Predict the 3D structure of the following.
Amino acid sequence: MDNNLTGTKTSNTYAQNHGVVDKDIDLRELFSIIWQGKWIVIIITALFAIASVVYAIKQPNIYRATTLLAPVSDQSGAGGLAKMAGQFGGLASLAGISLGAGGTDKTGLALEVLQSRRFIESFIDEHQLLVPLIAAKNWNAVNNELLLDDELYNAETKTWIREVKAPKTAEPSTWEAYKAFKKVLSVNTDKETGMITLAIEHHSPEIAKQWLLWLVSDINETMRDQDKLEAKNSIEYLAKKLQETQLADMKTVFYQLIEEQTKTIMLAEVAQEYVVKTIDPANAPDEKAHPKRALIVILITLLGLVLSIMCILLHYFTKK
């Protein structure tokens, strides 16, 4: 019995040691194969390295301009109506009028409007951004000149000449412009502080800066006009209801509601930064955001190294 156990242990030990030896031999064989084909590895890796340098150099610089914004506190409109709803909600309901349950997040609404297709398409059309948005390919820092892709746009005749398949046309559609603008625009909100960071990426740092300035101005103007229009419509409606009612308490409600809406119009006309306030204005960046040329070279060179080793091993084992 003891002899059998001893024999089994000896066999297992030998098998384990033999397996380790086989593994060592296999690794040594692999290294030997790679070493035999070292010149192939060196040549392929060198070619990939050279190609990566050329590719990285040809990539145009992309600059990222940012601006920091803060929400403007709501001191009228929805806040006033919320108080009115608490004081006179019962009386108003008797007359068939709903004062609402409370205020709305104007800043959140403004950010959604800013990223909406309707606003962006209007923004691109108003400021004539289609050419620098779609046809730009590089920027001349010396002359501060935006370089356009002559395969897409003819700067002399000011016509689009790109070749596309139907239903697309030579001139980009509003939908294409919207999708292109969404790629260069980023909106981030800090949940703790409520601060908003807007960023635009473009070949030209000056253009990125200007677009941000226009965005902040236009979203404030859009929200201002929207609130003024709603307030004027509310005043007209409340004035009509005021003439129809004979109840003194209801007239008090209508007068105070009209006062709140009048205050909304007044504050909208006075406040230049109506919804978002600029804390850190946009500035033309001196340093590029993309591309990371060193990283591109490293990754492509490593890819060449891996592919060359795989080719050598595949060739060896296929032959074998």
Q: What stands out?
A: The longest strand covers residues 63-71. Residues 5-11, 13-21, 75-87 have pLDDT under 50 and may be disordered.
